[in-house]
Amino acid sequence: MTEASDLLAGTAEGRLRALERRGLWYLLLNLLGIFLLALGLVELLYPQTLASLIEYRMSLQNLSLVLFGFLGIILMSNLLALSHRASLRKARGELVKELARHDAATKLTLVDPVTGTFDRRYLDEIIPRETNRADRRETTLCFIKFSLEGFEGVDSRLGYQASDRILQETAQMLKKSFRPTDIIVRYGSNEFLVMMPETAKHGAMTAVRRLLTKVDEWNRKKPVEGYELELSVGLADYTKGKDVRDAMVALDTRVQLFRDQQTPGA
User: pLDDT for 224-252, tens place per residue?
Assistant: First the structure.
């Protein structure tokens, strides 16, 4: 997907550069016409001055013809330049639309059809981008992993419609609890991962508490009989100089730690 985007962007850049080069030629032609016209006006207004610089002098009649010719060149070059600007504007608009359509189509292929969140393949594209941005800005990138406890047997006990509903409503609660700039990914069959750019751990925990409040409200309403939603949570952060793989390992460790703490007798 990234290679296709790069190829499309390169093609778009090449087309724009070709149009810009053509515009430069029009500009040079226009400047040449203006220079020659100015030279003709000097000859017309100050013939003695120009005569001292060059040996050859044109008659007034010939000079008038030359001036009209220069005016014609300037007018033509300006008309060509205007036409070129319109072509450039149209081409730029078409390329922007094409890139937007390609980006939208690419994202659709990376969206989980059940929850409407990104699927795990999207992480391969977004993690390098977000870690590079965190490095440039020297900010913290937080990762939060949520696992739906007791979800594995829902299909056999309650049916696939119930399991789909649980996943969909969990995704909706995530979207309402986190910012539009946060990235929500369906990480596994019963897991979600949230990436929070430019966010420290205390800010991430505020969003987690907001989500858990919504989970409590959901459980009180009992929308799916026979299932109570419980989330295990793991949180890790990435800052410049760290290895993002360590953060991903820490997520799994902390999710398991949460589960162990909830197990009676553990």
Answer: 999 999 999 999 999 998 988 888 888 88
| CATH 3.30.70.270 assigned to 118-262 | yes
User: What kind and span of H or E run contains 152?
Assistant: none
Residue 134 half-sphere exposure toward CB, CA atoms < 13 A: 25
At residue 231's C-alpha, the angle toward residues 243 and 208, to 5°, is 65
Residue 216, Cβ neighbours under 10 Å: how many?
Answer: 10
Do strands 231-238 and 141-148 pair parallel, antiparallel, or not at all (unpaired)?
A: antiparallel
Question: Strand order in 191-196's β-sheet?
Answer: 118-119, 183-188, 191-196, 141-148, 231-238
Q: Helices 201-221 and 160-177 sit at what angle, rounded to 10 degrees?
A: 140
